[in-house]
Amino acid sequence: MSYQRSPLSNKERFWAKVNRRGPNECWPWTGAHDRRGYGHFSCRAEDNEPTRSSVAHRLAYEWSIGPIPSGLAIDHLCRNPPCCNPTHLEAVTIRENVRRAHAATNATHCPKGHEFTPENIYRKASHPGRICKTCSHEYAREHQREYRRQGRDTANRSRWSPEQWERRREQDRESQRRKRAARTPAQREAMRQYQRERYLRNQATAIEYARRKRAEKSRLGQ
Q1: Which residues contact 24 (CB under 8 A, 6 or more apart)?
Q2: Which among 26, 35, 68, 171 would be 20 to 30 A from 120, CA to CA?
Q3: What distance lies between CA 159 and its chain's CA centroid?
Q4: pLDDT of 117-148, one tens digit each?
Q5: CB distance 85 to 25 below 8 Å
Q6: Does the pLDDT at position 93 exceed 70?
Q7: Which run of H or of E encompasses 108?
Q8: Residue 162 and residue 167: Cα distance in Å, rounded?
Q9: In degrees rounded to 5, what are phi and psi of residue 220?
Q10: 131, 124 in Cβ contact below 8 A?
Q11: DSSP 3-state assignment of 52?
């Protein structure tokens, strides 16, 4: 089956993924999300603009209000990360954005409505605030369901049949073939140059390591 490119423009594809409710309500993003709840959208190259991937609410601000001033961040006045309603978005300094985010840590529920109880939250170094366990578990279950649908159940690899392993290896090989075929001659030459430099660096590291070991043995022997 050949891939059929959508005839819609970037803006038409973008707004088709936004659930535009009442003017004062949140407009949730229905496309891809990251783990913090922010939507992501890939813009194709058009109108002399390069291909790029951006956060959904930033694109909603740019295409409804105007360019984002340099050095400013887009803050959700509704504290709802998936929201793309331009009236709920405000360009503020990063300092103010962080201050508002810290003030919002007094919230009693996560954006999906789960209560922040001691049993339902956890923290990690890569995330500045509280993390909802229920949301994390739902995300993990959905992730595993999708992998099972594709025959790539990573949580139960010990149960894979030989056919499943072979299908997974073939998927990986096909992915590598597509990547290699999509490279331009300049990219191929850059990759070969990178591999040569990495090989030389590894060789130099190995020689230096052997030299140090010999010197240490010599010192201990004396």
Answers
A1: 87
A2: 26
A3: 29
A4: 888 888 776 555 677 888 888 878 877 777 66
A5: yes
A6: yes
A7: none
A8: 9
A9: -70, -30
A10: yes
A11: strand
Asked whether the beta carbons of 41 and 52 are under 8 A apart, the reply is no
Q: Kindly indicate the confidence band of residue 3, based on its pLDDT and cuts at 50, 70 and 90.
A: very low
pTM of the entire structure? 0.47
Alpha-carbon distance of 15 to 41, in angstroms, equals 11
- Which two structure tokens, joined as six digits, stand for 167? 């299908």
Q: Are strands 121-124 and 89-93 parallel, antiparallel or unpaired?
A: unpaired
Backbone angles phi, psi at 107, to 5 degrees: -60, 150
Contacts of 36 (CB under 8 A, 6+ apart): 81, 127
Q: Identify which of 154, 139, 113, 145 has the alpha carbon closest to the alpha carbon of residue 35.
A: 139
CB atoms within 10 A of CB 183: 12
pLDDT computed for residue 8 by the predictor: 74
Cα–Cα distance for residue pair 198/93, rounded to 1 Å: 41
What is the per-residue DSSP string for 14-36?
Answer: HHHTB----TTS--BB-S-B-TT
For residue 71, give Cα distances in angstroms to 67, 92, 96, 138, 218.
12, 9, 12, 35, 58
Quick one: pLDDT band at residue 154, thresholds 50, 70, 90? low
**Measured between alpha carbons, how far is 8 from 61 in angstroms, rounded to an integer?**
20
| Contact between residue 109 and residue 117 where contact means Cβ atoms under 8 Å apart | no
Burial 19-50 (b: 16+ CB within 10 A, else e): eeeeeeebbbbebebeeebbbebebeeeeeee
Helix (H, G, I), strand (E, B) or coil at 13: helix
